[in-house]
Structures are given as C-alpha cells and as structure tokens.
C-alpha cells in the first residue's frame, strides 16, 4: 500500500492573489470573542425577562396590543431594558455576521463591501429602533388633533 498524503482542504484551490495578509489583529479579535460571550449571557437574561413580562404576566399573548406597549414604555426601566436588548442583539448579530464574512469571503474587496453594507444596515436599525423607543407617543391624533380610537391620551 502506497503512502499518500492528504492535502489541506483549500490547498491549490485559492489563487495566491486572494491570500489574506499575514498581519495579526489578535487584540481586536480577542475583544470581539469576549464581547460575544458576555453579550450572549446578557441577552439570555434580557430575552427571558422580556418574554416573561410580555407573555406570562397579565393576559399573556392576548394582552399584547398598542396599549400594552404604551404602558410598558411609559416606564423608563422598560425603555432601558428594550434599548439594551435592541443594542446588544444587533451588535451581537453584527459581530457574528462579520466573522462569517471574514471566514467565507475570499476577495478583500468583497469583504470590504459586505462588511460596509452590514455596518450601515446595523447603524440604521439601531438608530431607528432607539428613536422609536424614546420618541414613542401613545397619543395618536388625526389631522384635526382628535385622538384616534385606541389612543392613550392623558389629559
């Protein structure tokens, strides 16, 4: 039986012009790795707290409506809770997708474009979500300044 050598999975398949730079980014990658672990633990607490407050307390899923959200976001604690959930979930997911892009996009220009699109989308969602949480007004009015049905307006 002949002695055969098994080549590395990608050996001979990648054109040398697509090889990545040999520079080390260990410090950033270590912080990103640590962030994923810490944010994952925090997200578990935030998500289960969110689910418990929304589904187990009160009328459960039947009680989820505009008024429920208005009442919940009238409390700064829930505004902060949902804000932390939004920011951590988006940053955790973005970091995970960034890692996938680094692993699978072979061309440097492709990585730059994909990560650029990812970062812009993340920023837009975080900004819009933050604005919704802090500018939410439960008193919806029509063009004549008359409250709409279901609106929660305090006199």
UniProtKB/TrEMBL annotation:
Record's keyword annotation contains RNA-binding: no
Gene3D superfamilies assigned: Fumarate reductase/succinate dehydrogenase, transmembrane subunit
Bilayer-spanning residue ranges: 30-57, 77-97, 117-136
InterPro entries, A to Z: SQR/QFR_C/D, SuccDH_FuR_B_TM-su
Protein's UniProt name: Succinate dehydrogenase / fumarate reductase membrane anchor subunit
Domain of life: Bacteria
Keywords assigned by UniProt, alphabetized: Heme, Iron, Membrane, Metal-binding, Transmembrane, Transmembrane helix
GO-annotated cellular components: membrane
Location within or outside the cell: Membrane
Protein's organism: Paeniglutamicibacter cryotolerans
Pfam families: Sdh_cyt
Single annotated GO MF: metal ion binding
